[in-house]
Amino acid sequence: MTQMEAARKGIVTEQMRKVAEDECVDVEWLLEQVASGRVAIPCNKIHMPEPIGIGEGLRTKVNANIGTSPLHSNLDEELAKLEMCIRYGADTVMDLSTGGDLDEIRIEILRRWRKPLGTVPIYQVAKELLMERKPISAMEKEHLFEVIERQARQGVDFMTVHCGITKHALELFKRSRRIGGIVSRGGSLLAMWMVANNSENPLYEHFDRLLEIASRYDVTLSLGDGMRPGALADAGDSVQWYETSVLGELTLRAWEANVQVMIEGPGHVPMHHVEAHVKMMKALCHGAPIYLLGPLTCDVAAGYDHIAAAIGGAIAASAGADFLCYVTPAEHLRLPTPEDVRVGIIASRIAAHSADIAKGVKGALRWDEQMSRARKELDWKRMYELAMDGDRAMEYRSDMRDADKGVCSMCGQFCAVAASSAVERILIEGAKGDAISDIPAECPLIQ
Question: Is the pLDDT at 439 greater than 80, yes or no?
Answer without folding.
Answer: no
